[in-house]
Amino acid sequence: MPIRSSSSAAYIQNSSTSTNGVPSTRPTSLTIHPSALFSILDHYLRRTDAQHRVIGTLLGTRTDSTVDVKSAFAVLHSETDEQVAVDMDYHRAMYDLCTRVRPNETIVGWYSTGSDLNTYSALIQNFYSQETAPNQAVHVALDTGTEEEKSAGVKAYVSSPVGIFPKPENCVFVPIPCELRFHEAERSGLDLLLSPTPSSNQTDLDVLASSLTDVQNMLNRVLAYVQSVLRGEVVGDKAVGRYLMDVLGTGVEEDGGWTAGLQDTLMVTYLANLVRSQAEVSARLALTTAA
Amino acid sequence: MAAPSMAAALAASLPAPQAAPTPAAPTYEAIPASMSKAIDIEAEIPLTCVQLDGIVITKILKHSREAFSTTAHGLLLGLDLDGILEVSNSFALPNHHNDDDEKATKSIARYQQSMLRSLKEVQGDDNVVGFYQATSLGAFFNQSLIDTQAIHQDRLRHGGVVIVHDISQTARGNASFRAFKLTPAFMDAYRRANFSTAGLISHRLTFASILEEIPLRVRTNALLSSYLNTLAIPSTSTFSDAHPGVATTSALPPSYSVLDIGNVGLTKNLEQVAEAIDNYRTEEGNVAYLSRQIAREKLRAETYVAKRKEENARRVAQGLNALPEEDVSRLFRIPPEPSRLESMLLLGQVDAYAKSLESIAGAGLVKMYAAKASSGV
């Protein structure tokens, strides 16, 4: 699932043989973890007034044709009309710190907010390609959606030199598809952030109740649609009808296993209650004196 | 053990509490009353709430999941404002289990210093307000957490908070972050290092009164929430005859994993409960053994003193000098009362495991009845 509604990414296929027999290692797709995305947004919010866009380094892992971006950190840089400067010492120092916590993450590329690709981007891309040698550096351009006529989104590029004599200032950026990837276990954290009034003290039953309400609303909508089709108000879409029959027609055929499962669950609940009250009594008993 | 060394590392590296910044010209203006709530130099406004930024949540989630074999811990950065502690960033601390204590302490302190300096250069927050720890199945009472929190509470403004993140509960579908501080009663007992039975009674300490919970709130700044909502917008496919199951896609589809039936992790939880109870019994056995030893020594000392007195009385009756009363404490070394902190913590673990077991089983019960109702209709 691309991160922009209309993606102009080119889906590259690595050629299996090249002239010297070594398989090429150009990354052909990119996945980003939400924490990297949020770090970039946070850095953009904290930029000084003089900076129009901010850049930083991307860390992650790479497989044969995919690059996984796991985290990002900001890098000091200054950009004027004549020159651009990137603080390499800061970049190296931060990279050393990050590898101590996560030893399997390497530099995979760089990011910038604002999606203009100009000469400075080419120069910075060249610098980062030297850092990620022998692999290629990827460039992620993040649109924060705060400028007019630009909607929020993420675009990823790889570069290749262009021109008769390859110079560092010239390169062509090839867009590659990128998507948001995170582990299933982190899904509920993102749900928490997406909900309009996040409160972190919900019990399991609260979450269950809200999911069930959602499902109930969806079922009501489907029911209203089906009833209007039956009454003849709306022409039914055959594909939708068949899909609904497939999904809702299957039933659950468990019989004997259910009571056994119920008994087990009840016993576990009782045991847990017993252990808790025992622990409480024991704690109070410890407060009595021996004498 | 890494536990006391990490605590010592933090003690060595935390900045001393800073004095109020004085202006260059020596004219001290009084803080206007309207701003007195925001500018709180003496940390007088008590904390009522902890507010986590969205970025902290994703970072903690990522770190906890990646380091599930070792405990994930790290520091929180932020600012307290008007009674609300706003946590705006966090970073992870490396684990040192194999190094010896000296090197581990220094390297963690150096890591922290360089991280704070680097963050300051890119205009990030560099004010440490607490630390976070990931746990599984709800049991987070251990010695290192208490040591670290006690040090923080002495050194930081408002005392630091501990944010505990439960990995297993998040995997079940309910992202759980809780903020705690040590209660004043416990801090008092900790400072005096007096955890004998008498000490516990005087402070009325049970495992439930070690930590007090602070309400927690999650905040996403406007840019982040607009970005997330843009990502979650479902986009319809351009094919007019696409299968309805895949016609609309989005980068963040809604998930209903909480509705899955099947008690995942219940057996693991039961094992943990049983193991924790075993540990508690061992610890209590040790305490009982030490208490019996103390009682035996005391008895011997008392009988000695009694015999001495009797002998002295006899001698005085016979007219000889009384033998000197020897210092009993030098003859019989009475070992000190054992510290009951460890057994209290273990009891807290048992209770926490049982509580998460109860909540899993309770939710499972509701789901089973729901499934039966839907199929029996």
TrEMBL record, chain A:
Where the protein is mainly located, per its record? cytoplasm
In terms of Pfam families, this protein maps to:
JAB, MitMem_reg
For this UniProt entry, which segments traverse the membrane? none
Q: Name one GO molecular function term.
A: translation initiation factor binding
Q: What is the annotated localization of this protein?
A: Cytoplasm
- An annotated GO cellular component: eukaryotic 48S preinitiation complex
Keywords assigned by UniProt?
Answer: Cytoplasm, Initiation factor, Protein biosynthesis
Q: Low complexity composition bias: which ranges? A: 1-18
Q: Where is this region: Disordered?
A: 1-27
Q: Which PANTHER family match?
A: EUKARYOTIC TRANSLATION INITIATION FACTOR 3 SUBUNIT F, EUKARYOTIC TRANSLATION INITIATION FACTOR 3 SUBUNIT F-RELATED
Q: What does this protein do?
A: Component of the eukaryotic translation initiation factor 3 (eIF-3) complex, which is involved in protein synthesis of a specialized repertoire of mRNAs and, together with other initiation factors, stimulates binding of mRNA and methionyl-tRNAi to the 40S ribosome. The eIF-3 complex specifically targets and initiates translation of a subset of mRNAs involved in cell proliferation.
Q: What binding partners and quaternary form does the record give? A: Component of the eukaryotic translation initiation factor 3 (eIF-3) complex.
What is this protein identified as? Eukaryotic translation initiation factor 3 subunit F
From TrEMBL, chain B:
Tell me which UniProt keywords the record has, alphabetically: Cytoplasm, Initiation factor, Protein biosynthesis
Molecular function GO labels: metallopeptidase activity; translation initiation factor activity
Q: Which domain of life is it from?
A: Eukaryota
Subcellular localization(s) per the UniProt record: Cytoplasm
Q: Is RNA-binding found in the keyword set?
A: no
- Please report the stretch or stretches of sequence annotated as the MPN domain: 50-186
Which PANTHER family does the annotation name?
A: EUKARYOTIC TRANSLATION INITIATION FACTOR 3 -RELATED
| Family stated for the protein in its record | Belongs to the eIF-3 subunit H family.
Assembly and interaction partners: Component of the eukaryotic translation initiation factor 3 (eIF-3) complex.
Stated role? Component of the eukaryotic translation initiation factor 3 (eIF-3) complex, which is involved in protein synthesis of a specialized repertoire of mRNAs and, together with other initiation factors, stimulates binding of mRNA and methionyl-tRNAi to the 40S ribosome. The eIF-3 complex specifically targets and initiates translation of a subset of mRNAs involved in cell proliferation.
**What is the designated name of this protein?**
Eukaryotic translation initiation factor 3 subunit H
Q: Which organism is it from?
A: Suillus discolor
